[in-house]
Amino acid sequence: MGDIEGDDDFDSAFRALFQPAFRVAYGILGNIEDAEDAAAEALARALVRWRRVSRLPYREPWVMRVAANVAIDMARRRRPLTQTAEVVDDATDAVALRVALSAALAALSRRQREVVSLRYVAGLSERDVATCLGISVNSVKKHMLRGTTTLRERLGPEWREVEAVVD
Amino acid sequence: MSTEPTPHRSDDELLALVHRKATRIRHQRQLAALGASALVVLLLAGGIAIAGNGGGGNKRTIRAAGGPTTTPATEETTTIEPTTTSAPALSTSTTVARRSTTTTTTSAPRPGLRVEVTATPESAPTATLIHFVVHVRDDSGTVTSLGLDYGDGMSAPSMGVAIDCITPDAQHPARPALPSDKSWEFDHGYRRQGTYRATAKVTTGGCPWDAEEHGEATKSVEVLPGPQTSNGPAAPKAYLDETWPSGRDPALIYLYARATDDDGYVSHLSVDWGDGSAPSSFDYGLTGCDDSGGTTWPKSQYRNETPTHKYAAAGTYTARLTVTSVGCDGSDAQMATADRAVSYPSSPPSG
What we know:
The structure holds two protein chains of two kinds. Chain A has helices at 7-29, 32-48, 50-53, 59-78, 84-89, 94-105, 110-121, 126-133, 137-155, 158-166. Chain A is an all-alpha fold. Chain A is globular. By secondary structure, chain B is mainly beta. Chain B has two domains: 38-104 and 111-224, Immunoglobulin-like (Sandwich); 237-344, Immunoglobulin-like (Sandwich), CATH 2.60.40. Chain B is built from one helix and 21 strands. The chains are: A mainly alpha, B mainly beta. Chains A and B meet through helix 1 and helix 2 of A and helix 1 of B.
């Protein structure tokens, strides 16, 4: 496969890309082993498309976005949405809140989820999120507003705690 | 996060893990390219019709109406050929691997059909090609028709799918299992800004003794304003008033003319004094027009002028300001006017 030709180049970029992907995944999953796995999956997807991804001016955000999606999918498979309420009720620490956030994120549209994850969990600026997703800053704001409104509705008073934890 | 997490595994271990995962993804891609379903795909418009016995005793070929009859596959043999369909304007062609296999299985309840549509990007300017992928999974059914309505009055070419079926008999008690787990890809560019819902409609089943199942999935895409070189939709505004600057010549009338356009370039401003004399005109070149390289309407803009005039006779006149705005390419002129009654000779308002 032609993509394999860029493996050496990928290996040298690996360290710089893995850490932000891991950070995003950890912010969503709250578990180091799972975050390693999610970040590795994101990096693997980058590797098989390396010829294209390596040329992206925003390849780090690209990997972070993929890591966020992989992590949310993992969280969704692990925690059914119906558990959200009781998990939040018992939430006494950041991990429980992360679980609640992961479950709530899964209720968002994919674009809202990406925007909220990259903005809140990965800590990207609105402009960087826009660049990463190939949309306008105004669209980022719009998806942020809709996404956080939904999260606020689903999480109730815990939303403020989530904001404090992920900030 | 307040504390920065770090991976437990070393960089070398993680890099090895990434390569293993990448290898798995590549293998999955190769398998997907070969086609997971056992069917002959004919990308033809129309419904399903029985083309006749395919020979070999109990085999039949089902094909889309109007299309060629497929050669019945020899049992337990597989042929793979690429099939390409043409697409309408702004839509690209689609290539699908087609595969003809005849198999025999026992009957089993049909599990649910799952249809998914993705769009990349989900938000794009007008005329940008959006890549749609329709993914269909049916563990015991074959896609027999598939269509994608883009939601703007255009659709992907509908397609029918031909299947080799085996008539149930003592040796072959039920239809063949023809699992579908495939993706079809389409590209489409929207011409106008808006939010559209693309809808994929899928039918699976196909063999004449099978119940058909119908699946549907929708995907919203947001189409943003595309490159704009012409004038924006908002009309320009004209404002005309009399003014009395300090040190003015009492023999002259001074008017304050102002033109604005929120999304256009004010290129011309003219004051007709209402006495049959030549108007005072002001033209502005396009060099100051800024539309960010064609990505937006022209930036909001205004022009102020203070033309003067000496009437030949005392009286009341109606002066008219005419404003013209254009796009940065000079096209799509829009106009606005404003009238002002003036008395000559003029005197400033008291107080």
